[in-house]
Amino acid sequence: MRLLLVEDHKPLIRSLKRGLEEEGFAVDTAEDGEEGDYKAHSANYDVIILDLMLPKIDGLTLLKNWRQEGLKMHVLVLTARDATDDKVKGLDLGADDYLTKPFQLEELLARLRALVRRKHEVKDPVLRVHDLEIDTAARTVRRSGRAIHLTPREFALLQFLAYNQGKVVTRSMIWDHLYDEQDENTSNVVDVYIRYLRTKIDKDFEPPLILTRWGEGYMLRGVND
Amino acid sequence: MKSIRLSLVLYFLVLLAGALGAVSWLVYESTSRTLRKRELRMQELVHAQYQASCHEKRTALDQRVLGQAQTLASMARTTHHLESLLPLGMLGAATMPQGQYLVPLWLAEGTNIKMMTDLRSPEVHLKSAEDLIPEPPDGKPQEYYEVFRSQGQSLARSKSLADQHFLLDEDFQKNAPAEVPHFDDVDLGTGPKVRRVTLKFHVKRERGAQIALHWLLQPKRTFFKGPSPRPGSNPPRFGLGNYEFSPALFVQYARDSALLGADLQSLGKQRDEQLAALEDETLADLANLRQKLWWISLATFLGILTGSLLLIHLGLAPLARLSDAVSRVSPRDFRLKLDTKNLPRELLPIADRLGQTLEQLKQAFAREKQATADISHELRTPLAALLTTVEVALRKQRTPEQYREMLEDCQYSGQQMMQLVERLMALARLDSGADRLQTGPVDVADLARKCANLVRPLAEARGVTIALHADKPVRVQADSVKICEVLNNLLHNAIQYNKPNGSIDLSVHRENGHVLLEVSDTGIGISAEARGHIFERFYRADPSRHSDTPNAGLGLSIVKSYIDLMGGKIDVDSSSAGSTFRVQVPAVEPSPEPIMQTGIRAAV
């Protein structure tokens, strides 16, 4: 899942980026309103974490503009303003969630997961594909009852495939959602991770769940397939 | 606790009771005086009536005795027309022993025998006079009479006199006019007191004989002409020596004045009764008046009391409304919910002042709230960074390099919070008056140079140059720490809001007994609207935060407070080409001590 963090407090950016990346999120950052606006338009983010008091363009203005322009990404407002008025205003302007500083990282993560579920119109935090169970909250994966250990990036890839179960996802889609702006886009990075995932998910089980559509991309086997 | 209502009621009751008492007393006094006067007049009238009745009784008594006396007199007085019998009478008389010398006289006198007989013994004719005296009811004689001759001899007297005698006053006997009654009160010896009338009257003679006698006896003969003498006037007197030809008789008639006394006593009793009745009536009237006044007072008192309670209630109603409105004021809602249009004029200043005070309080509260929100906001971001950093750091085992980075972030956030807290403390100290100037001899030019040197690295990092214009030393007595803080803040702002590759001019010089410090930048300038607010706490022309300059909108407000404390002033000029902050502080000549060099460390 790819996030944009628009925040002007550098230590907070650094620690949040680190914390989120360690949970498998791809995190882009912007330090002021203009940069945030630019980045929001240039990539398809799953969630934007938006501070309100920003240099150059403040967060509420950004949010308003994005919604007016029809941008549909989920926005979680992360701000020091804790007055109810501010929360109401933020939510009414089109924010999907609101979290005040200081906060617990776990709570932020849970809210982000919830937003991702909402994006994919899923209620159950456990994604099921045949005998594969992906618990997005506990970040555990089981196949036929056997626990499978995945790295954050492998988990993110599997989760992305699972959310798009039965649909072909292209390499660039995977790239866009799993890698941040600083990652070098080398053509076979996605293929390498797919291979890792196949080794862990499909090697000892039948039927294989990760399918390759030549010339298109990859697909997690759908229920009817 | 004093209640206006109770006090008003009490004062009013006292006043009312006093007024009612006074009015009642006045009414009672004037009415009782009138009643007393009326009584007095009635008493006089009764007395007058009494006097009149007494007089009437006396007059009646006098009339009674006079009437009786007159009757008696008329009985004593006899007249005859016996001229035809004269010769016979003469003859008869002449034959009698005494008649030999009397007859010619009688003839001359024209009298007759019967008359003579009468004259000589009137008792004969007065025999029936006893009948005049009414029979006394208890046998005790009440009326008396006695008839005297002109010489005073008693001719006849009533049996009731018994052994008593009336006396004829000699002087009266001689000089009293005839037919004129004379009244007097006489003591009848051991007997009762009586009212007596004495009446003198003449026995009548025949006219012919009178004229003859007159003609014969008067040397100067004048004829008596005219009508017979009127009653009351003395008829002409004729006589020879002491012989009276028209002899006078005296009648005295008396009546027991004890009867009158009884009458008068009864009258007196009647009068006393009337007076007593009058007194009773007056007393009854007064009692009635008192009772009426009492009831009227009571009714008035109760009526006015009810009215006054109503009035007080009405009068206090606006106060109650005000108090109600005030009691509804709460920290949540500072509005005075009161319709001042319907408030009486007397309460308007209170309501207005209260409204203003509440408005000020509301603003102060809002500022306080805003300040708290601002402080909390300013603290939240570094705190969030600190906590998040720590949380992320603790999530898994890391390399020493990672720990170092994260700890540095923690330190940064911590320092940011500390700076904020320090600024807040500085403001709190200023607010509480605990912050005092600690002055010493200082060269402000030198101080400015040191401050500029301290911020120069930061300026150079942004490509901003700082030029110092301070040719001569400016030695004054001042608080170097605070001046340094002021310059530091102004220079930081000048760097932060400058354009890249801009410049800052810092000049220090003495002017008209002041030290003038000027900091000019080539920055973006400050809008006219913002210029009015830049010295307010938590005010920021750019609402977004610059994380590398954590001043939270407090810097300039601290600068202003310090300059105020030093008795100076600060103003700002600004255009799109940059801003100039101009600080003026009074130049106090330094005391002859060595210039303090240590303050600069503490200030920075």
The CATH architecture category of the largest domain in chain A equals 3-Layer(aba) Sandwich
Give the total of beta strands of chain A: 12
Give the helix level of chain B as a range of percent: 40-55%
Q: What is the CATH third-level topology name of the largest domain in chain A?
A: Rossmann fold
Major interchain interface with per-chain residue totals: A-B, 28 and 32 residues
What is the CA-based Rg of chain A, rounded?
A: 18 Å
Number of helices of chain A: 8
Would you tell me the structural class of the helices and strands of chain B? alpha+beta
Contiguous low-pLDDT stretches of chain A (5 residues minimum) are: none
Query: Which sequence of strands runs across the widest sheet of chain A?
Result: 2-1-3-4-5
In whole angstroms, how far apart are the ends of chain A? 26 Å
Q: Can you give the mean pLDDT of chain A?
A: 88
What is the CATH C level class of the largest domain in chain A, in words?
Alpha Beta
- Approximately how much beta-strand content do the residues of chain A carry? 15-25%
Q: What is the CATH H-level superfamily of the largest domain in chain A?
A: Response regulator
Specify the structural class of chain A. Answer: alpha/beta
* Percentage of residues in helical conformation of chain A: 40-55%
Order of helices and strands of chain B: HHHHHEEHEEHEEEHHHEHEEHEEHHEEH
Average pLDDT, all residues of chain B = 78
Number of strands of chain B: 14
Oligomer: heterodimer
How would you sum up this structure, described in words?
The complex is a heterodimer of chains A (225) and B (604). Chain A is of the alpha/beta class and 225 residues long. Helix content of chain A is 40%, strand content 22%. In chain A, a hairpin with a 2-residue loop joins strand 8 and strand 9. In chain A, helix 6 packs across helix 8. The two termini of chain A are 26 Å apart. In chain B, strand 13 and strand 14 form a beta hairpin. Chain B is rod-shaped, with a radius of gyration of 72 Å. Chains A and B meet through helix 1 of A and helix 9 and helix 10 of B.
